[in-house]
Amino acid sequence: xxxxxxxxxxxxxxxxxxxxxxxxxxxxxxxxxxxxxxxxxxxxxxxxxxxxxxxxxxxxxxxxxxxxxxxxxxxxxxxxxxxxxxxxxxxxxxxxxxxxxxxxxxxxxxxxxxxxxxxxxxxxxxxxxxxxxxxxxxxxxxxxxxxxxxxxxxxxxxxxxxxxxxxxxxxxxxxxxxxxxxxxxxxxxxxxxxxxxxxxxxxxxxxxxxxxxxxxxxxxxxxxxxxxxxxxxxxxxxxxxxxxxxxxxxxxxxxxxxxxxxxxxxxxxxxxxxxxxxxxxxxxxxxxxxxxxxxxxxxxxxxxxxxxxxxxxxxxxxxxxxxxxxxxxxxxxxxx
Length: 336
What we know:
Shape: globular
Oligomer: single chain
Helix content: 40-55%
Number of strands: 7
Strand order of the largest sheet: 1-2-3-4
Distance between the termini: 29 Å
Number of helices: 9
Largest sheet: 4 strands, antiparallel
């Protein structure tokens, strides 16, 4: 999830854990604790982009990291934050819970989270929530603002935090329910087309969990389409995208290519733009793909131009968005 979501989730969790001893400082420590696994961003300052893609949400998002870091952070907190009357055990629970919530929530996005690092490079990904979803985050935002504004003795403080987290949790469940419905429908259609999925993926389009982006591998390419939970038609308009993997053989740095393949979990294509080869990771969606018949992928990497890849995961995500695009987006969500 985005950093702001982790901050407000951490604040609400901090309030609940310290409900009998509320303080603004505990809210701030909660915000830091829930954000801590993202400290791996510092790797981007010295690692190549392809290595950084694999390092992010890697070891610092693992169960082992939580087991190792929580006791140390609990010890430091009990020594330095004496104004918060927590025992070592309470601090241990605090840090472990906050970081566990972080890596759990991140697993709902398409990026993938390395829960089992360094023993396994498998990335956990439920693919049921966009990386920034206002309908998930709004509740802890409101609760956090209320907690900072209200006095520490306000009787409803803990109730606000619990309510906010409950509403966000219900939204997670709704996303999983929508995904289950979309996947069942899409896979049934693909089978009827004679394109039984052997490698299938679906994820919500930006800022919602109603319109879904679907990718299904078949032979030498992928079927790509969009489906809304409000679609009245039983058929989805799929288009076929060729893999063109052979284009990547011309790239000099095959080590980068192998990292990109591993990162993409097999959902990748190659293209040639003029004299430049492009690697596309399909998992992150397309730029306004529900309106553009030949959209660019949000994630595209130039293997032959290493200095042109500073930002790749959300490159141009909203580049083509204007009033007309947004209206078309809402119409597509509504089933039109």
